[in-house]
Structures are given as structure tokens and as C-alpha cells.
Amino acid sequence: MFKLSEIKELIKLVDQTSVHELEIENEGARLSIRKPGKTEVVNVQAAPISHTYSPAPAPVYAPQPTAAAAPAPQQAAEASAPSRAVADNLHTITSPMVGTFYSAPSPESPDFVSVGGRVSEKSVVCILEAMKLMNELEAEVRGEIVEILVSNGQLVEFGQPLFLVKPE
């Protein structure tokens, strides 16, 4: 079953992103959240365990406005990052989930990676926090970090480009 705090956190995450629908099945319970202008909990019922995701029809990697929003030139650079990756034969590391991006294991620690740094397939490049769980994201490619496309503490979406890597 879902805890009320988990449901509230999911509603908050869906509300803050361009995701229009989220459906999760866990321990025999099914939760669907849809956002037709506002977030509403649609259905909770018993069902087999599986996970599904329905992305928004618009690109989900557009930066979200925040109080500390990035300047417009950086937003333009982020929007052109996927086309640059294709043109320069770069590997794009994307977010496997909706969550908060952290560039270091703690505020006092140095960043996992920086531009110009080398990574291997098992190198941790960031932490993605989702529902109070800290998930380490590995590079899954050997190469050099060319660009970091998001800032520390930024909310990221499923499939959003996070890093550009020049493969070796």
C-alpha cells in the first residue's frame, strides 16, 4: 500500500514537472495521478506489481522555472544540447527518473564529476533523489565529461539530458 506521505510527494513531483500522467503499481496497490490543468488522484485499487510511465507529449527536458532560474543563454544551450550531442558524436547521460539532481554526495563534498573529468562505465556522476531515496547514477560509458547540463538541486525529469560525454 502507499503511504499518505509518498502520495503527497508524488503529487508534488508531478505538479512541478511537465509530466501529465504517472501510474505506479506496488505491493498489490495501484496509484494513478493525472494532471489535466491540476493534479488529481484518480484511482487506488489492488493489482499485480508493475511500473508504467506515460510521458508528456511535449519534450520533458525543458528546464523548469525556479526562483533561482538560470539565465536565458544557458537555457538555450540546454535546449540545443541533444542536437549538439548528435553533431559531435557525444554520449548523452539522461535521467532515468523524475527527481532532484545532486552533483555531490553531500553539500561539503566535491562534485562527483566536472567538465574535463574522465569517467568509466561504473563512475558515479550524480545522485538523483526521488521520494527521499538517494539513487546513484553511473556513467555507463568511458570518456570525458564535455558538459554538465543541469545545476545542483535542480528538479529533473525522466529522459532529461544531464551530461554530455565524449566516449573513448
Amount of beta strand: 35-45%
| Major sheet strand order | 3-2-1-4
How would you sum up the global shape?
elongated
Structural class call reads alpha+beta
Tell me the distance between the termini. Answer: 45 Å
Helix percentage:
10-25%
Question: Biggest sheet: strands, sense, closure?
Answer: 4 strands, antiparallel
Order of helices and strands: HEEEEHEEEEEEEE
Radius of gyration: 17 Å
Mean pLDDT: 76
Alpha plus pi helix count: 2
Total beta-strand segments = 12
Low-confidence segments: 38-51, 53-62, 67-78
SSE layout and pairing:
Blueprint lengths: L3 H12 L5 E6 L2 E6 L5 E7 L4 E4 L17 H16 L3 E4 L4 E4 L15 E2 L4 E7 L2 E6 L4 E6 L6 E2 L4 E7 L1
Antiparallel strand pairs: 1-2, 1-4, 2-3, 5-12, 6-8, 6-11, 7-10, 8-9, 10-12
Question: How would you characterize the overall build of this protein?
Answer:
This protein is α+β, with helices and mostly antiparallel strands. Helices cover 17% and strands 36% of the residues. The strands form 3 sheets. Strands 3-2-1-4 form a 4-stranded antiparallel beta sheet, covered by helices on one side. A 4-stranded antiparallel beta sheet has the order 5-12-10-7, covered by helices on one side. About 21% of the residues have low confidence.
